[in-house]
Design goal:
The complex is a heterodimer of chains A (484) and B (483).
Chain A (H helix, E strand, L loop, with lengths): L5 H10 L4 H19 L2 E4 L1 H16 L10 E5 L26 H9 L2 E6 L33 H8 L5 E6 L5 H7 L2 E4 L19 E6 L2 H11 L29 E5 L9 H16 L3 E5 L7 H16 L18 H12 L2 H14 L5 H21 L5 E5 L15 H5 L6 H6 L3 E9 L2 E9 L4 H14 L12
Parallel strand pairs in A: 2-3, 7-8, 7-9
Antiparallel strand pairs in A: 1-3, 4-6, 5-6, 5-10, 9-11, 10-11
Helix pairs in contact in A: 2-3, 5-6, 7-15, 9-11, 9-12
Chain B lengths: L2 E12 L38 H13 L7 E2 L2 E4 L9 E4 L9 E6 L5 E13 L3 E3 L8 E3 L6 E7 L6 H18 L11 E11 L9 E6 L2 H20 L7 E6 L4 E7 L9 E2 L6 E2 L2 H8 L6 H12 L3 H8 L2 H14 L2 H19 L10 H12 L5 H12 L6 H7 L8 H14 L1 H9 L5 H4 L1 H10 L5 H15 L1
Parallel strand pairs in B: 11-12
Antiparallel strand pairs in B: 1-9, 1-10, 2-15, 3-4, 3-14, 5-6, 6-9, 7-8, 10-11, 12-13
Helix pairs in contact in B: 2-3, 5-6, 7-8, 7-9, 9-10, 12-15, 12-16, 15-16
């Protein structure tokens, strides 16, 4: 049952092959029995899931079901879920029970989906390895000595390990695509503004975007149908019709022009990775797409611009975690100053503190123009690169990350090497474009993803391209070795 | 040395929107602590601000009223600082691109004199909550009801030169925001608060001296007092050869002194940056014109109209137009009375005196403008005397009746103005008082005006309700006929 995709489970439920309670129980049992190895969940909401499943079955019996009724899924623990701990992977919010639902969680509730629980992640989504969680590191189901990627490592690992067929995630600099690549699953980061950020705990507001991680492009499309849409509770969400993302999956890619940024395929790229990606792109050529070399001349500025903007925004976003109204509070504070200092020093991990300090520095008087303002100017240049490129091509393809999943501890001691992990993914966040990771090969028995970057609001095309690739290849069906 | 005083004011005015600037919570004053704070006001993880467009409309209205440049694109910034009553750890405000740019107002300096003061800018921001330090056993309580109430912060140019000008400026701002209906102007509830920046420089020097900022002064009188004592304090230091420390000070009204609150050197670096949760606010000419169409007549315009249309003196026009409610009351009453001068004298005299004595505002006056108009209409037509009018006014005030005509009848205030009737009475009075008449006739011409008094008294005693003016004329006539 757990090897079925979301779409198959949806069909089976509609056909009455099994009940929502049965499939929900099945996944809950798997989480219980297997997640000790992966640590992909922070909170499992057994009781609530079964209650939702039972209600879904009743709805179906009454003839009021839709394709989502009773379909199990889960949420990254960054989305607020009413009555359920929403920790963001941090000690700071270990005891925070959200009193409200994020729009994304609410959307899934509205369609009758069943939430199995909340998945593990880098603390406050800051990281590329899911090692910085207060709840311990997440293990890559393909090889437990390797990281699952981050920050949505829990979501990607849980989908890869068949603990849930689809899980929500977020992407600020690659946090959906890179773990999807590392775990051999499919993930899409939509256009900025496409999915409401209301109730999604902010890391860097101008870059954060929610999206799905699932096994197939079709499943991702099914999830995005629920997640996408204008929300008046989020001023940065965009009022624009949401297409049916499943409608164009079967379109041919024939005649499509694929842009290959020369800066992404430079001599710095590992030759094995380059070969793997080129092989994947050849599949598109076979299907009738044409390739075109393009240039994104400001690519080298992405990492520095990102590591000014994201920490700056986070330094303010995380100020509300002050130990006054919710969250971790130190013992016996002497005064309010002491309360702030100790609560925050105890509640935040090293990486979070590092980024808060980086951001505070970049915004401080006398440095603002040199850092934050300059980074915003660079951001415009990066955006212009893409706007120019999309005059000539329909979709851009590249690696997701420089390498397959690395080992634990390999980069966590060296922040800069960790930051460079996002070198191919940051640009889409800075430009606000949609990006996707599709399983496209294996290196040393570890999966590798192909990145697809689309024009604004061109999610349908990305999903179409990904689906066509998955029709022609079977990388997305590969199962981690040893997985039952 | 001769010093020049330089004062600039920053006035915070709470906008009279129903809900907060970035959340749907009510802005009503005086509710139980934290009952008007929702998840956004609490700054919970994941919540996002949604801008209340009513606040925008009010700010634009203000900008138009002070003839200011309107920011067609304005941007919200985060001002970062930690304080328990600031739940997000930053305040959303507008730093570089405010909604209102350079404008100006004319302040009244008494005796019809005015002075133009430039207003640097006015921007939108959110109010903080309140920390409550009493009654929590060494700890502090936090009330977030006020948190997120929309404010406009109005910043003047440093052009005010003394405490009187400063309070006149504050008064005028209060008058304007109340005219516009964008702020209730209530100083005691903190709907309007004032920070005073004060510095001194040698007369003739261009460069500004070091300033201090006196925070949160909450009445016109205290603005004057605080600035006066601060000027004195600074002058003493400077005269002794010392220098002023740039700092924030508090005014202690009981001790009549300002004292240091915190020094700017150790103050926060606010690390302003544009709030990425909010889009820039873009408006167009059409929007501005639509708001302009809703502008009421403003104090200046009203004052001018009172002078030209109603023939009031500059002083009277100024006093009567200072508050919209007073002006409306005056105009409504005068229209019914049919005489603007009589009404102006009444509103500025008896009405104002009664309001002051009873410590109530014009909006709570028990005598409506209609009633006052009806009373004064009777004065104008000589149906009652001015004293009679006072009696009716007081009777209504005290709740003894509400119908003016009825009260005039009940109180027997109708005066007789019929000359032939009065002539008969006067003839009788003269006949009954031969000694008085003789005394009068023996009084030299230039002192007769005074000597006529006893006849008036006697006439009015003989016939209650006679019009004293008519009595006077008839008496003069009759007495002159006698010699």
């Amino acid at each position: 049952m757990h090897n079925k995709t979301l779409a198959q489970i949806s069909q089976d439920l509609q056909a009455g092959e099994y009940s929502s309670v049965e499939v929900t129980q099945h996944f809950l049992d798997r989480i219980k029995n297997l997640d000790g190895q992966y640590n992909s969940f922070i909170t499992v909401t057994d009781e609530q899931a079964l209650t939702q499943a039972k209600a879904a079955d009743e709805l179906r019996a009454a003839g009021n079901a839709n394709e989502w009724t009773g379909v199990p899924m889960a949420h990254k623990d960054i989305f607020c879920t009413e009555g359920v701990r929403t920790s963001c992977g941090s000690k700071m919010l270990d005891k925070f029970i959200a009193p409200y639902d994020s729009t994304v969680a609410d959307n899934f509730n509205q369609v009758g989906a069943v939430s199995l629980g909340k998945t593990n992640m880098d603390e406050f989504a800051m990281g590329s390895s899911s090692e910085s969680s207060f709840y311990g590191a997440v293990k890559n189901p393909w090889n437990a000595e390797h990281v699952p990627g981050g920050s949505s490592g829990g979501s990607a690992a849980a989908v890869a390990a068949r603990l849930a067929p689809g899980i929500t995630a977020t992407d600020t600099g690659g946090s959906i695509r890179q773990p999807a690549s590392f775990c051999g699953v499919t993930g899409i980061k939509p256009t900025y503004g496409r999915v409401s950020r209301f109730g999604m705990i902010s890391y860097a507001s101008s870059l954060d975007q929610g999206g799905p991680i699932a096994r197939t492009a079709e499943d991702a499309a099914m999830m995005l149908n629920v997640m996408a849409g204008f929300d008046k509770k989020d001023s940065t969400s965009i009022e624009r019709d949401v297409p049916d993302y499943r409608a164009n999956l079967n379109n041919s890619v024939k005649g499509m022009t694929i842009g290959l940024p020369k800066e992404y395929f430079s001599a710095d790229l590992d030759p094995v990775m380059a070969q793997t990606i080129q092989d994947a792109i050849k599949e598109y050529e076979k299907m009738g797409a044409t390739l075109k070399e393009i240039s994104l001349p400001n690519t080298n500025l992405c990492v520095p611009a990102y590591y000014v903007i994201a920490p700056s925004e986070c330094s303010a976003n995380l100020s509300r975690m002050d130990g006054v109204r919710f969250g971790h509070r130190c013992e016996d504070p002497k005064d309010v100053e002491d309360l702030y200092k100790r609560s925050r020093s105890e509640g935040f991990g090293d990486e979070v503190q590092r980024r808060i300090m980086l951001g505070s520095y970049a915004l401080s008087a006398g440095f603002y123009d040199a850092y934050y303002k300059k980074a915003q100017q660079v951001r415009r240049l990066i955006k212009n690169d893409f706007v120019a490129a999309f005059n000539d091509v329909d979709v851009i393809m590249s690696p997701v990350a420089p390498s397959p999943a690395f080992k634990f501890g390999e980069k966590s001691k060296d922040p800069v090497s960790m930051y460079l992990e996002d070198i191919y993914t940051l640009a889409t966040n800075l430009a606000g474009l949609p990006g996707m990771s599709v399983p496209a090969g294996m290196i040393n028995d570890l999966p590798v993803g192909l990145q697809l970057i689309g024009n604004y609001f061109d999610e349908s095309r990305l999903l179409n391209c990904a689906h066509q690739f998955q029709t022609a290849t079977d990388w997305h069906t590969k199962t981690p070795t040893g997985l039952k | 040395m001769e010093w020049e005083v330089v004062i600039g004011l920053e006035i915070h005015a709470q906008l009279a929107t129903k809900s907060k600037i970035f959340s749907g919570s009510s802005t009503e004053y005086g509710a139980d602590a934290n009952t008007q704070a929702n998840i956004y006001d609490l700054g919970l993880p994941g919540v996002l601000p949604v801008f209340n467009e009513e606040a925008l409309r009010m700010a634009v209205k203000f900008g138009l009223a002070i003839d200011a440049e309107i920011g067609m694109k304005s941007v919200f910034d985060r001002k970062n600082y930690f304080y328990p009553d600031s739940p997000k750890g930053y305040q959303i405000t507008q730093l570089h691109e405010p909604i209102v740019g350079m404008g100006h107002i004319d302040i009244d300096l008494g005796e019809g004199k005015t002075r133009r003061i430039n207003v640097t800018r006015a921007h939108l921001e959110e109010d903080a909550g309140k920390s409550v330090h009493d009654g929590f056993d060494g700890q502090s309580g936090i009330d977030l009801n006020r948190c997120g109430t929309p404010l406009i912060e109005i910043v003047s140019e440093p052009e005010l030169r003394n405490a009187k000008e400063a309070s006149a400026y504050f008064r005028k701002m209060q008058s304007i925001v109340m005219y516009l209906g964008i702020c209730d102007g209530n100083l005691s509830q903190g709907s309007m608060r004032c920070d005073c920046n004060v510095s001194l420089r040698p007369k003739g020097q261009e460069e500004l001296g070091t300033r201090t900022e006196i925070k949160n002064v909450n009445s016109f009188k205290n603005v004057e007092r605080a600035i006066e004592v601060e000027i004195e304090r600074q002058m003493d230091i400077l005269e002794d050869g010392g220098s002023i420390t740039q700092e924030t000070r508090l005014f202690d009204a009981d001790k009549n002194e300002t004292r240091s609150m915190r020094s700017k050197e150790v103050a926060n670096d606010y690390r302003y940056f544009p709030d990425p949760d909010l889009l820039p606010v873009i408006i167009d000419e059409e929007y501005v014109e639509a708001v302009r169409a809703t502008l009421p007549e403003l104090p200046e315009q009203k004052k001018a109209r009172f002078e030209t249309e109603h023939g009031l003196s500059a002083y009277n026009a100024g006093v009567l137009s200072a508050s919209r409610e007073m002006a409306d009351y005056f105009e409504a009453a005068a229209e019914i009375a049919g005489d603007y001068k009589i009404t102006a004298n009444w509103v500025m005299g008896d009405v104002s005196a009664a309001l002051n004595k009873n410590e109530i505002s014009i909006s709570d006056i028990p005598v409506s403008s209609k009633q006052l108009g009806a009373i004064l209409k009777n004065v104008k037509s000589n149906a009652i005397s001015n004293d009679g009018a006072k009696e009716v006014f007081n009777a209504i005030w005290q709740g003894k009746g509400s119908d003016v005509d009825q009260l005039i009848d009940q109180l027997g205030l109708k005066q007789v103005s019929d000359t032939s009737a009065i002539e008969a009475v006067v003839a009788q009075v003269l006949a009954d008082n031969p000694k008085l008449v003789e005394g009068y006739l023996n009084t030299p011409e230039d002192k007769r005006a005074k000597a006529i008094g006893p006849f008036i008294g006697a006439t009015r005693k003989a016939a209650k309700g006679v019009n004293p003016q008519v009595v006077m004329e008839v008496l003069k006539q009759k007495l002159s006929e006698l010699g």
